[in-house]
């Protein structure tokens, strides 16, 4: 099904109503296929479709006769059934007419013009129900991913510059952000980034360790006008006075911090998770011209003490459609989420949160809602329907979400990788109010959590959403016996046209990468294929290889990145790598030479939960919409 935000007429009980948005039949998409040849209006089915048409075989009754019987005496202004639209019918009985009986001599005349069956030339007919078209297989995967190395630095995050230029921001775990210029694909040039001149240096505030550091950066959608950006990092309250927030282990979630076991010698909630706002308005007259930013915080958005030293996610992203800030938070650490934080609706651990950072809350609002900082709650957050949820929560049941992204072509596809514990690594499509199962499930597999001092959740009390992609630990790193997923992006560049539309993700240990192909499109069902990768022989920076193989020695794959041209990057411990044309690595892609290397057209959105039309007039409503869409176009 598809959704068109176009006016259409609804016929009901002899009256015409004007509506703005409604489901339309999949068949109407056929009206918009690119063709320079004249195209007739779609026909109304009056016989069975044939085997070699585009339309899946389906038996139909005489729908054209139904349309005549239902509509013959109904007035329809600007009727799509006018004789002139088909160019092959006799002159209407009356001029300036609005009824079918005014336009056509008889039912036979009407159906001789508008009736028919699908044919082998690719046309379809409309039977009053959604038309199912034969699906076509996506192009075959190339032999592997071809990479070029364009930088030697090790970074944790990459964000394309909001001004749409060929620049991007890179940040490392220690607490620095750099502004870099990205070379054109196939230019043979390297990333222009001056390590000695960071855009922002927060190393005095950031606590850096294996599990801690600067975990994410996000630039306001209107950064080019307002100069606002945000950093997510960890701090140590024993070394920095500005690191002071409430402990996430508290009586509201049935947790007593005095009873928490020692974790690597740290005290409970000694380490905090922080989101802070910064600006470039003090260093440049125009935000897009800024080369540095002030390290002085404009506003503390969020501060929360962490119960243990692991599983605290930390990525932040702005929603491309709603403009709200999303914050990914793990379950706080500990084997099996012993305090059941991820399922506890009063805890923000093991959650994806959603903030409005364009409004400043009053002191009364902060106190009344128990907010953790200076943000407000979007009015459509899930707590509106589920009063047990903390108002910040967008989704729950996460173990440690590590790298999430919105599909640039279909923003409703919000993808998050969630790190597993013993057996399974997963990729989820995040939806409003969704529960992703941890710690009752690891992936789609039931998990037996330890007895929780904070009370266990009954497995029968939740309706978990299963992952759409993932892999078992046993499939990789057999020698190390461990695995950790790194989420990626839908590939929307045409640099590698055979990879277009597939979701890429990897394992942290760089032993494997996968491409997920959705089939059928917009179904939420994915087939995953492990895909090999190598470096181009003419890479701007030579790639070191794993001894005895042609596999580049990437080290750890920390993150993926996407630039304004939709090219995809791997941020690894050994450097920055970009996906380039398959032929540079002698991989074969049949579409490479025939495809324009520009930005691809946006894809359609996935099916929504819009209400379907029902009743005796449904068929006619869909018919009217399909025809009028053609007329409008």
Label the overall shape.
globular
Helix content: under 10%
- Write down the Rg: 28 Å
Coarse structural class: mainly beta
Order of strands in the sheet with most strands = 31-8-34-33-32
CATH architecture assignment name of the domain at 203-525: 6 Propeller
Beta-strand share of residues: 25-35%
Oligomer: single chain
Low confidence ranges:
1-40, 48-59, 594-633
Describe the largest sheet: 5 strands, mixed
The named CATH superfamily of the domain at 203-525:
TolB, C-terminal domain
What would CATH call the class of the domain at 203-525? Mainly Beta
**Number of E-state strands:** 34
CATH topology of the domain at 203-525: Neuraminidase
The averaged pLDDT comes out at 82
Number of distinct helices: 7
- Determine the N-to-C terminus distance: 19 Å
Domain Glucose/Sorbosone dehydrogenase: 158-506
Subcellular location: Cell membrane
Membrane topology: Lipid-anchor
Main location: membrane
Question: In words, what does this structure look like?
Answer:
Its main location: membrane. Its cofactor is pyrroloquinoline quinone. Residues 158-506 form the Glucose/Sorbosone dehydrogenase domain. It is found in: Cell membrane. It is a lipid-anchor. With 633 residues, this protein is mainly beta. Among the domains are: 14-33 and 41-48 and 59-83 and 94-131, no CATH class; 203-525, TolB, C-terminal domain (Neuraminidase, 6 Propeller), CATH 2.120.10.30. The strands form ten sheets. It has a five-stranded mixed β-sheet, with no helix packed on it. Strands 9-10-11-12 form a four-stranded antiparallel β-sheet, with no helix packed on it. Strands 13-14-15-16 form a four-stranded antiparallel β-sheet, with no helix packed on it. Strand 29 (513-518) and strand 30 (526-531) form a beta hairpin. The longest helix is centred in the last third of the chain and has 15 residues, at 618-632. The chain is globular, with a radius of gyration of 28 Å. The two termini are 19 Å apart. Mean pLDDT is 82; it is low at 1-40, 48-59 and 594-633.
């Amino acid at each position: 099904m598809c959704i068109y935000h176009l006016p259409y007429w609804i016929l009901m009980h002899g009256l015409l109503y004007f509506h703005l948005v409604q489901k339309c039949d999949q068949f109407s998409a056929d009206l918009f296929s690119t063709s320079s040849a004249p195209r007739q209006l779609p026909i109304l089915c009056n016989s069975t479709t044939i085997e070699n048409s585009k339309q899946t075989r389906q038996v139909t009754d005489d729908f054209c006769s139904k349309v005549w019987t239902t509509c013959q005496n109904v007035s329809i202004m600007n009727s799509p059934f006018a004789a002139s639209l088909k160019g092959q019918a006799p002159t209407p009985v009356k001029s300036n007419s609005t009824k079918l009986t005014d336009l056509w001599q008889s039912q036979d005349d009407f159906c001789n013009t508008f009736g028919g069956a699908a044919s082998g030339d690719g046309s379809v007919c409309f039977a009053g129900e959604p038309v199912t078209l034969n699906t076509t297989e996506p192009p075959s995967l190339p032999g592997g991913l071809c990479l070029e190395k364009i930088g030697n630095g090790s970074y944790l995050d990459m964000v394309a510059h909001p001004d749409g230029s060929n620049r991007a921001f890179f940040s490392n775990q220690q607490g620095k952000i750099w502004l870099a210029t990205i070379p054109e694909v196939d230019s043979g040039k390297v990333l222009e980034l001056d390590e000695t001149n960071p855009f922002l240096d927060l190393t005095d505030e950031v606590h850096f360790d294996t599990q801690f550091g600067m975990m994410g950066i996000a630039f306001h959608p209107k950064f080019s006008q307002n100069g606002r950006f945000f950093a997510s990092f960890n701090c140590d309250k024993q070394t920095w006075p500005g690191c002071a927030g409430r402990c996430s282990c508290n009586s509201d979630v049935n947790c007593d911090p005095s009873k928490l076991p020692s974790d690597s010698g740290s005290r409970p909630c000694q380490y905090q998770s922080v989101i802070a706002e910064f600006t470039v308005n003090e260093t440049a007259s125009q935000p897009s011209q800024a080369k540095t930013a002030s390290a002085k915080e404009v506003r503390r958005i969020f501060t929360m003490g962490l119960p243990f030293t692991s599983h605290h996610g930390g990525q932040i992203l702005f929603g491309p459609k709603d403009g709200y800030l999303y914050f990914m938070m793990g379950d706080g650490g500990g084997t099996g989420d012993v305090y059941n934080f991820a399922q506890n609706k009063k805890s923000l651990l093991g959650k994806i949160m959603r903030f409005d950072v364009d409004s400043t809350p009053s002191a009364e609002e902060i106190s009344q809602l128990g907010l953790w900082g200076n943000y407000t709650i979007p009015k459509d957050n899930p707590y509106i329907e589920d009063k047990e949820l903390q108002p910040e929560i967008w989704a729950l049941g996460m173990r440690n979400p590590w790298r999430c992204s919105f599909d640039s072509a279909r923003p409703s596809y919000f993808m998050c990788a969630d790190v597993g514990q013993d057996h399974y690594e997963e990729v989820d499509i995040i939806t409003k109010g969704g529960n992703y199962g941890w710690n009752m499930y690891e992936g789609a597999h039931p998990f037996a959590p330890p007895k929780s001092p904070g009370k266990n959740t009954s497995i029968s009390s939740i309706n978990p959403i299963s992952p759409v992609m993932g892999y078992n630990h046993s499939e990789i790193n057999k020698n190390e016996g461990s695995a950790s997923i790194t989420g990626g992006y839908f590939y929307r560049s045409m640099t590698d046209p055979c990879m277009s539309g597939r979701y890429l993700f990897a394992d942290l240990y760089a032993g494997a990468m996968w491409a997920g192909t959705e089939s059928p499109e917009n179904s939420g069902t994915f087939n995953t294929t492990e895909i090999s990768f190598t470096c181009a022989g003419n890479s701007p920076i030579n790639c070191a290889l794993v001894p005895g193989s042609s596999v580049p020695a990437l080290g750890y794959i920390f993150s993926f990145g996407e630039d304004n041209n939709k090219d995809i990057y791997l941020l690894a411990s050994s450097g920055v790598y970009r996906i380039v044309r398959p032929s540079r690595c002698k991989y074969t892609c049949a579409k490479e030479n025939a495809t324009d290397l520009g930005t691809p057209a946006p894809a359609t959105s996935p099916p929504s939960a819009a209400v379907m039309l029902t009743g005796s007039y449904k068929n006619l409503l869909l018919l009217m919409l399909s025809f009028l869409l053609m007329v409008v176009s």
